Batch of 2 targets.
Target 1
Amino acid sequence: MTVSSTNDLISSDLNPLVMLTDPYPVYEELRELGPVVWMKSLGVWGVFRDEQVREVVSDHKRFGSRGGGGTSNYYFEKPWRERSVVFETDQPDHTRARTIFSRILSPLAVNKLREKIEAEAEQFVAKAVAMGTFDVIADLAYPFPLKVLPDAVGLPDEGRENMLIYNSYVRRGRQANWQDNWTEEEHREGERISAWVAERCKRESLSKTGFGAQFYAAADAGEISEHDAANMIRSFLAAGVETTMNGIANAINLLASNPDQWAALKKEPGKARAAFDEGLRIESTSQFIARNTLDSMVYYGTPMKQYDKIIAFVASANRDPKRWKDPNVYDINRNSVGHLTLGTGIHGCVGQMMARMEAGSMIAAFARAVDKLEVVDPASWKTTGTRQMLSMKIAVTPA
Amino acid sequence: MQAAVSRGLAGIVGECGGGAMCATCHVYVEAGDYAKLTSPDGVENEMLDGTACERKPNSRLSCQIKAKSELDVLRVYFPERQI
């Protein structure tokens, strides 16, 4: 049988997996091609429909994570930095790390931070609202998670923006042939940033009362090694700041751009978490999740080799009309449960209760503090690497 | 959990979509039916300590209960709240 393939959009002269200003119409085309698509210029498989994306992301018996989170395949290419013991592993190793994460980031643990996070959300919102006109990214969505999450981990104050520089290296380090594609300068800078992060994840760098200390407590109890504790903290910081920033920014953009939804939220401020979750569905900050086959297999009629990379485009699945009614409509009253932005299954986002707490607090505080909002400069987006808002200016009238 | 959510039953939230991460799909399983189920694994056990309403011996996360024909009928009670 003919295998569907494509050589556009998800191909690039610059970066693999280029994110266009509006990727959604292109995903629609790719969903039409077939259940599995061969992405010729990248040499990896892609799935774009909810049915396959869901399976590939959650069926850990057929699809593994040890091969890495991007087009670079760790079975064949050295990773840029040591594999994450939770994100880039398979069972049984994964289970051990995951269980510890689940415990440290449990809903109970996150709830203990509720008052503090809600108070900080109020402060950041008040500061921005007092400006009248402000940038959603620079003045709201960026500084709040940058304070809250590293605080919760127990990081010192200075240099936290280095986390975001680190993240861009992590993403680029997941691209195939990263070693050959970087300049000398980029290699050096990558090393420098990596060392900075590694230093911050050490036991002695962290406060005695944060999440970080709890990972080391697990090491003291013999559950994990000291080395793995540092690795887990690294993963948590990398995964837990920028994603939340983008999620909050996207939600505010969607509310500002959909006056009926802003009105719905004003009427029911309890819908703040729903406004965030529906925002995650319609505008995934991570557009894809990578897996690799564990054995040669035939998937929906397509033969695949062992350890072939298969990229599951969650952003496309979340707009699949076979799964979602009016998928391109932002509707905070729909039940968005079951979207795939946070993954699902054993590798589903373990920090999501923290993210929901932060975002819910900020959006609720925003809905209480603001009466009218108006877009002054619409959102501008990065066009390569990841789907990320660069800036957006709004003008608000206080409530 | 999927059955409840797809039928719009308000007693289940399932915020994380069924991944044993949010503890908002908490149910109390009818005594007679509880024995039909396999025990919760380590992760579910941790999560059950974080439910909004009191954890009881028959507490389960409904997202971790797999529908099987052998289960036939499973009776559960919703707690007062999930969040």
Target 2
Amino acid sequence: MEKVNLFITCLLDTLFPDTAQAVVDVLEHLGLTVHIPKGQTCCGQPAFNAGFWDEARDMARYTIDLFSKVEGPIIIPSGSCGVMIIRHYPELFSNDPVYGPKIQALAGRLFEFTQFLVDHLHVSSLGAAFPARIVYHPSCHTLRGLQVDRQPRALLAEVQGLEILSQENPPTCCGFGGIFAIKMPEISGQMLANRLTAFEATGADLVVGCDISCLMHIEGGLRKKGSRMRTMHIAQILAQGLKS
Amino acid sequence: MSTAPVSIRQGVKKALENPDRLVNIQTAAERFYTGRIAALTTLPDSDALRDLGRKIRAHTIAHLDQYLLQFEASLSALGGVVHWAGDAREAGEIITQIARAAQVKRIAKSKSMVSEEIQLNARLEAAGMEIVETDLGEYIAQLSGDHPSHIIAPVVHLNRKDVGRVFAEKLKVPYTENVLELNAIARRSLREVFLSADMGISGCNLAVAETGTICLVTNEGNGRMVTSLPRVHVALMGMERIVPTIKDLGVLLQLLARSATGQKMSSYTSLITGPRRQREEKGPQELHVVILDNGRTGILGSDLAEVLYCIRCAACLNVCPVYRSIGGHAYGAVYTGPIGSVISPALGGIARYADLPQASTLCGACREACPVRIDLPTLLLRLRNKTIRQEISPLWMKAGLKGFRWITTDAGRYNFLTWLAGIFSKVLGKQWLTWLPGPLRGWTRYRSFPPFQKSFQQRRRRAKGED
């Protein structure tokens, strides 16, 4: 049984533990042994995005040290955290003779959740069934930062009964942006309103995505609006779809 | 002009009070966006051309001094005069001097964002000159005391009804919202300006070092009129707006109009190489090119240098979800949108424009759209770091992030605090929260917040009997 490590990410850990469990369930269903390195916290993205790079470095070093101690692939169910490690850690530690190589080694075995399933395990059909009409929201960091889009769509296409409704092109940011959501709330709220209008126009029951941060912001908006639409992380669709 | 720090949130609140204007902007941005996508498909390999465009700009910026000096030599040999302006005040003085020496009273001006940057009109008017904007959008803005809200389409926030009202009020003509009639009104009015102007001031989209050429890309005939009818022509250019050869110009011209409006070429692409020659009877007798620094030297060689590759196509504005949501005026700066969010603090100071790099989700649509592949999100992040190093940050954010760092760099602290959150969850229940205190109120004004939980790692420890 292949062993994989899971970087659950601070948001899934603290606010969406059921989704975190769904990630584990899917991986275990595929015959993997999932190891969750103890003491994991946060990749440092909130501090980095806010410009607090010294603090971000401290958090990054903690994370790099922790995951350097384990071998094998590291799966991360979040595109934005993946981008932080793969694209921004090098910026934080450019010319660092110790952490530079550590980051390179880590990045080489770090996979976003859907990327791991489709590109590494070569699995897109899990035998899941989940009848629902959904719209897929491609999170910006997942889409443009990691170039991951084909993989989640391939997985969703194989879920029985799932109808993936199309929405207007091009993919547009939901307006979360991390601290931006509370630092520039008016802009964030306006961008969110635009997205919700687009989602509701499709008539879908669910908005599905790979990034819990976007989904948290979108669902928060849907609930405030009194909409019956909800969000689900792709891991939840797959995990629940496997149970049926 | 005020030097107080720009508050983008104030600008946004004002912008959101005028939803009709935002619709105008979104409509135009959408049109430019779809135009760009379609126009790029007319190139055999647009990705390769963008890579080449970036290479040309990167090389030029890395050897900027060499190419600027070559340009000066080339143009001087043809009778043109090159002036070097260190800052806005100097540029104003140089142009005023040129105008005085040539006994200029009336100036016809075609569009130039650099002239907005240095407040040229105000400086020349203070020196007693009359200056009339001849780009239709700038003309409308000048008549109504407005400012451009978009880098290439100045009054994209207005529609034809707004224009009709401006013309009726300021030009004393009957109100019309018919586009052809509005055009005719403007043409009649501006024709008189072109024919009577002593001096024409233009911008410069790209200068060519090897030939001493300045290239103007416009869709209106005003660029031609302003640079060929008056006896004196002054072209104002940012010092980074140059390419080595005519061939290089060709590459960038293929990208510029396509990226800006979706045209393969603009209606008038003008290459002006020197003033009237000895036996020529037409054209300006004097051609002056004023090369402006105004902070650009400070960007060269820095970790923001890439922003100097910009060819001012505004593709980033058209695709930016923030710009589309709030429009250009909300930014409170001459240069708006993603490019403006880097250029404004880089040129005008971080203290004044600290808000602009914050007004982005770093979605990356701008980087995807840029014809020369400027990595704007990374430049914005670097500016945010520079802002923090200048100690410009609200206390709640500094405290919050330092606290967050403290919690997340020790497993014991993290586990304790997540355990506490788990206790909270028992008290607060499973409902999404509709109110959060302090700076977090910004969240709940627009959305609910998910309920506190017993953390996943804690559940796992409990399940494995480790708690």
